């Protein structure tokens, strides 16, 4: 397939309609002349080079195709392992013991929320976490510790950031 670049963008097939500097438009790419194509701001033609889609990706960089190796796949979040690490962490258990005595509903929200987080739904855990922080039960050190556990278990950065971002 013959492709053209418009203003340096990644090449693609010509559109059905091009606008010429005179203000006139032309339709039907099969009738466009090379002069009209260039006058409309397109460069080319370009032909994508062959590459192995299983191991390589085709990028468009500074007006030319570049074949690069595929990046490694993103790590898979280890929610279940994170939950286990949090539940066995001594600092977390000290905080949970305090919550169990002073705010048992909030304690339950954290425990249930952690189980739901292990299935990818972090809302209950984060809401309970923020409420516990609001009560002064969660220290800056504990936030850092849980963030480190989350990072070590490849959890999404939005979750890690939300541990400290109290709404």
Present the secondary structure layout.
Blueprint lengths: L2 E4 L10 E3 L5 E3 L6 H6 L2 E5 L9 E6 L2 E6 L9 H9 L2 H13 L1 H14 L5 H12 L5 H13 L4 H6 L5
Antiparallel strand pairs: 1-4, 2-3, 5-6
Helix pairs in contact: 2-6, 3-4, 4-5
Describe the protein's architecture and organization.
The chain is α+β, with helices and mostly antiparallel strands and 167 residues long. It has helices spanning 34-39, 79-87, 90-102, 104-117, 123-134, 140-152, 157-162, and strands spanning 3-6, 17-19, 25-27, 42-46, 56-61, 64-69. The strands form three sheets. Strands 1-4 form a two-stranded antiparallel sheet. A hairpin with a 2-residue loop joins strand 5 and strand 6 (64-69). The longest helix has 14 residues, at 104-117. The relative contact order is 0.10. The model has no long low-confidence stretch (mean pLDDT 92).
Spatial sequence of strands, sheet with the most strands = 1-4
Query: What composes the largest sheet?
Result: 2 strands, antiparallel
Shape estimate: elongated
- Tell me the radius of gyration: 28 Å
Number of strands: 6
Number of structural units classed as domains: 2
Structural class based on helices, strands and sheet pairing:
alpha+beta
Span of the ends, CA to CA: 51 Å
Summarize the structure.
This protein has 167 residues and is of the alpha+beta class.
Features:
two-stranded antiparallel sheet, single chain, 167 residues, 44% helix, alpha+beta
């Amino acid at each position: 397939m013959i492709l053209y670049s418009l203003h340096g963008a990644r090449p693609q097939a010509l559109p059905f309609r091009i606008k010429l500097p005179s203000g006139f438009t032309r339709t039907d790419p099969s009738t466009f002349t090379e002069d009209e194509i260039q006058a409309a701001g397109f460069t080319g033609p370009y032909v994508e080079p062959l590459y192995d889609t299983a191991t390589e990706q085709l990028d468009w960089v500074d007006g030319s195709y570049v074949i690069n190796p595929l990046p490694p796949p993103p790590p898979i979040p280890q929610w279940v392992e994170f939950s286990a690490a949090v539940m066995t962490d001594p600092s977390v258990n000290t905080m949970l013991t305090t919550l169990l005595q002073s705010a048992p509903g909030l304690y339950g929200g954290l425990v249930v929320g952690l189980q739901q987080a292990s299935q990818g739904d972090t809302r209950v855990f984060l809401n309970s976490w923020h409420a516990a922080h609001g009560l002064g039960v969660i220290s800056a050190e504990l936030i850092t510790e849980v963030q480190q556990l989350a990072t070590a278990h490849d959890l999404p950065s939005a979750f890690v950031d939300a541990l400290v971002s109290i709404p």
